[in-house]
Write a structure and sequence with these properties.
single chain, alpha+beta, Endonuclease, Chain A, two-stranded antiparallel ribbon
Length: 259
Amino acid sequence: MASTSDLDPWRVICARLFELSSHDIPEVLERTGLIVDWSLDDRQDYSHTYRKRAYRPRINTAYHQLGEEDRLRVANITASELVDRGKGDELDADLHKIGWRMYGGRLTPTTAEVSELFFPVGTQYDAYVEIRRILQKATTSLNIVDPYVDSSLFVVLATIAGTPIQVRLLTYKLPSDFVHEARIFLQQHNNIRLSVRWSKEFHDRFIIVDNEQCWHVGASIKDAGIRVFMLNEVEDSVNRAALISQLDQTWTAANEVSI
């Protein structure tokens, strides 16, 4: 299976973007809302080549600092701008090689690999199925980091209730009836041992299976598929270890919710 970075459409879009004039590149990206430092010294402003050389690392840094949803928005708008500027056929051919295409003026996945990662608006069921598939990989433990869970979590947890599983939920805001519903859920599904703590330290959402496999989830589980989001496995072992270590530290310091 290709890596997440191999399937990211941005590198293809960016390559075509840099075929434009150095004066057009800022104009295109300013329409996306991407914040880039466009200032140049005399040497950097000498020619199109020098300007592009200065812009490229700044653009990529600004892009990769965005959250998943904002990256998709920037990629979509940039791709649409390139189509409007006559780059549509070349861009579509390049995107097709990594499982994407332009359809109706928007980025659309064309392969199963990309479809498992990219969820456009209105794909709540597909998103639910994919998140359920990830949770069902667990044999001993699940860590779920999601600041804004609600009772929909219990629907997906019920699908793994046949196996004894330790579930740790790190969240921030809970609905007023969450604890009551959790207690009722656990009475029926006593194979699940649920612990809940709250903390403000995590902004993004993560699922960690058996303290080994990690996924970054671009939306709260309750909102998955309502808006565009991406679901990425954390493939780098160093990043996985850092994430698990940080979660353990945050969990230790977090406030316990009595269930």
